[in-house]
Give the backbone structure.
Amino acid sequence: MDFNVKKLASGAGLFFTRAVQFTEEKLGQAEKTELDAHFENLMSRADCTKNWTEKIYRQTEVLLQPNPIDHTGARIEEFLYEKLDRKAPSRITNGELLGQYMQDAAKEFGPGTPYGSTLIQVGECERRLGAAEREFLQTSAISFLTPLRNFLEGDWKTISKERRLLENLRLDLDACKTRLKKARLAEAKTAMAPDFQETRPRNYVLSASASALWSEEVEKAEHELRVAQTEFDRQAEVTRLLLEGISSTHVNHLRCLHEFVEAQAAYYKQCHFHMQELQKELGRLPNAFALNSTHSMAAAGSAAEGISSPVETDTLKIEEVQAPATGTRKAKVLYDYDAADSSELSLLADELITVYTVPGMDSDWLIGERGNQKGKVPVTYLELLS
């Protein structure tokens, strides 16, 4: 193994010099080269951008994958597939899994039963919602999360590296300034005129030799200072250009943010559409709760009257039907309904009406009253209130 002792010693000496300079600056015993105000503002803006980008990125991940365990597993899976140069398979969403469970349950309970048929409809809707969610997750990851992650793992690492290098060069520059200052003070002391009466001739020679040595030391320190200043200025310019690129990063992230909002709006629009369609489908299915309530009302009405009504279904005349003394209930209308003939009552969604039943009437219908209007209304369009 090629082990360069001289290079190692040089590196250790440089590290020690920087450590001494940094410590003296913290103790207030050494001067520090200050950057201009514009440069300081650029660095503050970059730090602010990094901190908030990281927070937004992490919280967006939590929003898209709320379960921390699933989130960690997904990241590990993505990492492994990335290392293997393969594309990660699409993960099934919770909505799709719920929909599959509902449809499997419907097969067990019987698809012809009210509960089974409703499970089929709701399960299909949940699967559509899950598919929309998966598409939203993929779109958001590509258009929003990926650019943020690229900035944190790419651009920001480059900026941090150049800033660390600039700080090291600043320490070298200030160490050179300190060394030059000390050399000049020593040279000034040795250059002071000696006292001929108290100084021996031998000391004149030593004094002249020391003065020459300190002059060489000053020249060497001045040369090192010029080199350090040049390297520092060059690195400061490189770092400045990188920091000014934060403005372009903001523009790019702004565009990504718009794409994320568009994807989110499209996702919620799809969800709203699927839920509306599900409500319509459920409105067409038999309402077991309403049917049970209807049969109960019919039995209670017959028991209270004790006799059969002379009004038969085939010859039902709405104007002759009278509300019973007991057994009427309030009902909320779920959907709009247009009367098919004069015996029916048109309905508006969310209105409240009074309903009751008459013996011998079809169990899918009730008699509804609204003010002085009266007519048959379908049970499936109502929610019976207590």
Summary: The helical segments are 5-26, 37-64, 68-83, 94-109, 114-190, 201-244, 246-284, 288-305.
